[in-house]
Amino acid sequence: MNVKNIVKSIPLLSILAVIVLLSLGAFTPLLSAQGNNILYIPFVESTAFQSLSTYNPNIFSGGLGGDFYGIVYAYSGVLNVSNGQMLPGLIVNWSFSPANWMQVWQNQTVNVTYTIRNDSGWADGTPVTAWDIAATCYVLDMYGAPPFANITVINNYTVVFSYPKGSESPYNMPFRLMCTVGLGEVAVIIPYNEWKPIINEIIGNWSALQSGKIPTKDFRSIIHSYKPTGSLAGDYNGPFYVAQITPSEIILDKNPYYYAANQIPFSQAVVYQYTSASTAEAALESGQISLDYSAVYSPPSSILTSLPSYYNIVRIPQPGGYALYYNLKDPLLDSVYVRQAIAYVLNRTAIALAGGIKYSPVNTPNGIPNFTYFQEFMTPAVSNLNHYNVNLSLAKVLLEKAGFTFSNGEWYAPNGSEFTLNIMVPFSPGPGVTNMMDIITNELTSFGIKTTYFVSTTTSTNHEMYDTGKGYDMVLQNWGGYFPGTVDWGLPLSYLGGYPFNVTQWNHLVTLPNGTTYNLTKLYQETSSPNSTQQLISANDQIAYAMNYFIPIIPLVKENAFFVYNSKDIVAPPANSWIYQEELYGIGGTALLQVGLSYSLFTPVSVTTTTTPPVTTTTTPPSTVTTTTSVPPTLLYSVIAVIIVVIVVAAVVLLLRRR
């Protein structure tokens, strides 16, 4: 072949090149989709994750936890809040036994058999099995109190939970399904293969744990210090998994083994790490964010009202918000008169206004929230509870009744010491919370109770304070939530009331002025496993009355959730869609995201389709299986380009030979 022939061939090569470029047009949507089907999410934490090498996926030791349930972890099942029915997740079928369990549940063990789907996997290709459901529940049980359900894994896709007699009431089935099929609103977060040493140790001590001879808290430190040693992808079974970490971003790639991967049109989620609210706010205002939900970042009211018009904001009313928890180990706060006096000082309307449009004042502290799904519990007694409207004169009378004296604008305790309060805020407060804390401290200080607050974001330090009751007088914490079929007393009477943390340092016994003593632990159990509908209503009635009088916590404001999405990036249902009610379920609204993604209710403005590799299934306790590796798009395009070049060269050679 000579140079002259090659030069003559240039026009032909040009024509072929154009044909090749036109043929590559078929791949253009896939290429452009890499920039159009990515979720951009803000995440505000005081300390950013630095790298994959330093990252510990153990959610009890700093890994992505409740803020990302539903995104990186799959729910076993989700309660459809709009109709009280369960939406299958990893658990696709469930049944109760014996057949007459509704008649004999008070005297017999009730078994719930779960069938696990066989087409979903952890992001390393390991199938999700019944062993993972069991492992998750064993670990979560260490944050509760016995008796626990006994767990029997029949095979990789069948597991039986045997609940103690008297615990599985048929009188509030939505609540029961949420706690059984829905694993108490917690996603499947523990991969059995990665956590075998811990799970085996729990199982080996199961009898002692069930009897209380070994306290569950002994296992918490073991759980906290554990670091899974396998592939990082093997720790995530939800729509996405952690693929890369820099000090500014967490890259979440789509999990190709997630059962609904074909329905999820987003290939990736980029989580921007911000260590200050101001940088997150700037990103929102500049349009860099695709969606924002309450768990990862809750913008202040001023930002919500000033976002560009292409952001759609869905307001979701919630039966919960912020409350002040008293520390009853403080001898001054152990007096009910003192706690009531403080309640009469605080102006909840002013506090809510300081927080902004996200907040509204609580009408009746420790009453039953005025939501339609709680109306059956609004008995005459509950409807006439003490509202604790601001009454400084009555507050003065109550403090004097408790032996306090007022001098030179300040209150003094019966022992002559100055009455001061120090309030702990165990999280990084945004501007709205900061404004509310300023109002709280100013109102109490103006009344003569010198009050300050401090922020403590070190988990171990906070837990130590909760264990000892030292270092704080009050704590700003969450109250309320949504428990279908009953009122949600879980935070003050369970999670923050003793299992696992006793923030109030209180034994849950309340003696009323008429001499009646209520055991609120027992009443709380009745709300979850009532003998009748009437007992359920009565138990909620008595809890509300006792806590309204005894006031171990003061609910101050209701906090509305906001789901914010960028309409340039995302197509979402209208604000009146049932899907947004799922914010009431799960951790931080992440069940809403998982359902919305899995059912293709949230889609990118430009939608593309992906293919899901099949999940390999096994019939023995799970172990890592060989995965099918998808060809990266860039490599695929390179291979295609090489093939095309070879074809072009071959064609030219043939043409030249013919000459």
Give keywords.
single chain, 659 residues, alpha+beta
Any chance you could write out the topology, listing elements then pairs?
Elements: H1 3-24, H2 28-36, E1 38-44, E2 77-80, E3 85-88, E4 91-97, H3 101-104, E5 110-116, H4 130-141, E6 150-155, E7 158-163, H5 173-180, H6 192-204, H7 206-211, H8 217-225, E8 240-245, E9 249-254, E10 268-274, H9 277-285, E11 291-292, H10 301-304, E12 311-316, E13 320-326, H11 336-345, H12 348-355, E14 359-361, H13 380-383, H14 392-401, E15 405-407, E16 410-412, E17 420-425, H15 431-447, E18 450-455, H16 459-468, E19 474-480, H17 490-495, E20 509-511, E21 517-519, H18 520-528, H19 533-550, E22 553-559, E23 561-566, E24 570-571, H20 590-598, E25 603-604, H21 633-658
Parallel strand pairs: 1-10, 17-18, 17-19
Antiparallel strand pairs: 2-3, 4-5, 5-7, 6-7, 8-9, 9-10, 11-23, 12-23, 13-19, 13-22, 14-22, 15-16, 20-21, 24-25
Please summarize what this structure is.
This protein is of the alpha+beta class and 659 residues long.
Q: Give me the side-by-side strand order of the main sheet.
A: 14-22-13-19-17-18
- Proportion of residues in extended strands: 15-25%
Unreliable sequence segments = 1-35, 608-659
Mean pLDDT: 86
Task: Summarize the structure in words.
- The chain has 659 residues and is α+β, with helices and mostly antiparallel strands.
- Helices cover 34% and strands 19% of the residues.
- It has 21 helices and 25 strands.
- The strands form 8 sheets. It has a 6-stranded mixed β-sheet.
- Helix 4 (130-141) packs across helix 6.
- It starts with a helix and ends with a helix.
- Residues 1-35 and 608-659 have low confidence and may be disordered.
